[in-house]
Amino acid sequence: MFGFIKKSLNKTAEAIKSVAPKKKITFTKDEIEDILLEADVEYDLVEIIMEQTYQEKITREILRSKLLATLAYTEYKEPEYTAPFVELIVGVNGAGKTTTISKLAQRYKNEGKKVMLGAGDTFRAAAIEQLTLWAKRLDIPIISSKQGHDPSAVAYDTIDSAKSKGYDHVIIDTAGRLHTQTNLANELKKINRICDKAHSGAPHRTLLIIDGTQGNSAINQAKAFNEMVGIDGIIITKLDGTAKGGSIFSIAYALELPILYVGTGEQPDDLTPFDKYEFVDGLLDAIFIDEEA
Ligand SMILES: Nc1nc2c(ncn2[C@@H]2O[C@H](COP(=O)(O)OP(=O)(O)OP(=O)(O)O)[C@@H](O)[C@H]2O)c(=O)[nH]1
């Protein structure tokens, strides 16, 4: 697994190169500020980091501890639960929900677990079709209904079926957009209630999918979902396709939520557990040279 996160930071490293073409042992505060902004760390967070840095010459170790501190909330603790473990996947359309659900399912399947999907984005026919296609490809059962049907019913049926057949995991897709934000909030809340009715304690976690190419502009969107439904963790998709890798710091910091995985490509296996040390060191490798080198 090691190396995937660093590799997916290639575009972010290129962006850093545009403001800091030569790797060095130390940088001035101004230089570090430019580098962080170029990597799409949000301005406010860059200011916070800089205000707390008293040294004039910034070394790798100094920046490392500052960046790791912004990811202090990234530890995730799995709750106690009785199988099946039910996950609700939320996020705006196009964030990569479908692909990420498939990647999660593939991951659990690789671990020898039995996974069932629920096509809960009944707002778009294409969402149901796409998830069904993935389910076929991965040879995983899926519960779906026609477009326009109540997604809570899909969630209930999926959990019910998974329970009676002894499945380990249930992953339920949800709509990313309805006619109004209030409708979406109500729908997500109802799905939550019905999940609990189908299986006490469910959903055991609600994951927000964020499109990494949106960078910091995803923060408000994430806050809105968190208010609507309560998020337990984040998955950032398309890290490999963005120069905005630094936005991970501002997203985690602003939401005080753990980042569980990052998407590092388009294939079912391209989902990597987020390791904050690998992520920070991958970024620092693009900035600093080793003192020994
Ligand atoms: N390079 C790369 N592409 C990704 C990643 N995750 C998703 N994609 C691509 O992003 C596009 C949109 O993802 P989908 O899962 O289809 O998302 P969607 O169906 O448009 O929208 P939702 O399912 O509603 O989020 C697809 O072309 C995916 O292959 C990733 O981690 N890396």
Our count of domains comes out at 2
**Helix coverage percent of residues?**
40-55%
Distance between the termini: 26 Å
What is the subunit arrangement here? single chain
What's the CATH superfamily of the largest domain, by name? Answer: P-loop containing nucleotide triphosphate hydrolases
CATH architecture term of the largest domain: 3-Layer(aba) Sandwich
What is the structural class?
Answer: alpha/beta
Q: Can you list the ligands bound to this structure?
A: guanosine-5'-triphosphate
- In CATH, what is the class of the largest domain? Alpha Beta
Mind explaining what this structure looks like?
The longest helix is centred in the middle third of the chain and has 18 residues, at 181-198. Helices cover 46% and strands 15% of the residues. The chain contains twelve helices and ten strands. Strands 5-4-6-3-7-8-9-10 form an eight-stranded mixed β-sheet, with helices on both faces. Strand 8, helix 11 (247-255) and strand 9 (259-263) form a beta-alpha-beta unit. It binds guanosine-5'-triphosphate. Guanosine-5'-triphosphate binds at residues 91, 93-99, 127, 130, 176, 237-238, 240-241, 263-266, 270.
